[in-house]
Amino acid sequence: MGVRPVRILLVSLLVLTFVSCANKPTVDPRIEALVAQKLMLDIRYFCRENDINPATQRCTTPVTTLPDELKDMVADTGIGGIILFANNLQDTEQMIRLNRDLQAASAAGGHSPLLISIDQEGGRVVRIPQNISTAFSGNMAIGATYAEHGTHFATLSGDVIAKELAVLGFNVNFAPSVDVNVNPENPVINVRSFGEDPHVVSQLGFAQMQAMQNNKVIAALKHFPGHGDTSTDSHSGLPLVEHDLAQIKTVDLAPFQYAIDHGDPGMIMTAHIQYPALDNSMFTATNGTKTVLPATMSRAILTDLLRDKMGFNGVIITDALDMAAIAHFYEPTEAVLQTFKAGTDIALMPLAIRTAQDIPKLKKMITDLAYRVQTGELSLAEIEQSVARINALKQRYVPTEKEQLPLSQALVKARKTLASPAHLKAEQELANSAIVAIKNQQAWPIKPATKIIQLVMPDNSKCMAMTTALDDALKATPSTADVAIRCASLVSDTTQQITAQQRTAQLVIFSDITPQQSLVEMGGMDDITDWRLRPKKEALDAKLMSLMKEVKPHQISLLISMRTPYAVVDYADYLDGILASFAYNTQVTEQVDASGQATLYYDGPIYRALANILVGNQRATGALPVSIDKVND
Q1: Which helix (H) or strand (E) holds 347?
Q2: Is 593 an annotated catalytic residue?
Q3: Whole-Å CA distances, 408 to 94, 282, 411, 498
Q4: Which tens digits make up the pLDDT trace of 367-426?
Q5: Catalytic site residue from 179, 279, 319, 345
């Protein structure tokens, strides 16, 4: 090619570039600022280039102090919120410093305070380290106390949880879950629900919400319009609820409507669930498939129903947009665009920021969304109204920098508040009040003739916690002070090993944690590899059944159901007794003896409550909050 043709080509390219740039509209920074306020990001992990795991090419370095890159990101973009996970949280001072540094970064950019959020439901979903906080037994345990105690423990747990979050600098709690669990096969809600009765769930959810918000922590009722009748986890798939309109109104929507009618919920979180009776519109996914719109993307559900018909005036926030129910069907920016069109105020976890190279992607997302506003695809008036709702919530609940205590005083207050004697007493009272006796043919109190107790627990940590609690209770009772306790792990020990041990015991205590741990309990989508590698539930169930069948007629056997109790009917004929605890929170602390030797100590209020019932020091006074088939007593 000669010189002249090359010059002509270069001039042509320059002209095309000029024309392209000239035609590209300038995005209004004010609109970008509005869009940014509607995004809430996670900073669970962050890596510099040499920190990335070479084997997996994944970043797994937790953010416990705020890197300069993330400080600048918060200051430059003006994002409205951050969600933190267990990986981000180590100890009291570290949590306070991290949250203060996040707020300082936002202030440095001239932005309003951040919404700093967390999943601290109690029970199976907690993020604050349990050895320094108060976790409680969770919603289904609270549901088990309703018949005798009404809303007492919902209020008490909401009060304690919010007080502990507030002193650490959190201002949003993604709780309570007010899903009405009417599906025994529900893999993700189950024990996180207060129960199957919409009236009870409404009462308990509202009481817990009020207690949290009375302590300046925004409660986020979830998962609208209801996740209680699903057999698919929206972390791994797109659930479908085929209720008719009457059932949706009287069951699924009832707790949300009750809270709206009787109080002022700060937030409601959407569910990535198809509800064709509410909206049967179809959409085409990125892979070309067509399916029904999930609620998170439905204007008919979020605007026409929740806002206009149900009268909700607070902030609508999505569940995490990285969950497979959304991420499988939408590209990140498209997902945010569609949920904003539907009427969402805040998009939760729309984009993973794991390295500095991800930050320009966030800025591009903000610019692209602002451009969609300028072109009229998104309504500027609706975006402004949405940000006004967010700002109103911040002004009501988020303390200003001037209102913050100096760091030294904040640390003193936090250390007095977290796991205080009064809070731990409340936690133990809930555990004591929640346990249900489903069947008892003299399986407890433990008989004086008992010499050996064989425990068969789901894993070693629960073995140690139950052994500790039971040993303490037995030694405090003169008639059983010399009883020996052995424990086997259902996961670690073979069927042959456990069978050999239980043959020589007079009492065999089995335990069950059906269904298995869900992704939200582990943390989220970053944990999906570990979640898929869990021991298979079917194999564990079969193993437990075979062990029960090995119990001899002269032995006493009982089962402790430590999650939802639906499966106990399968085992009931082989057992003399069944207890339900709805929880198995295990606290691990390090104890140092006089010689300086450190050992790990496993404990927990639910284990102490169970032990005291088994030795006869207290009664099981809870009532089942869900229905199971009749068990012959």
Answers
A1: strand 347-348
A2: no
A3: 13, 55, 5, 52
A4: 999 999 999 999 999 999 999 999 999 999 999 888 899 999 999 999 999 999 999 999
A5: 319
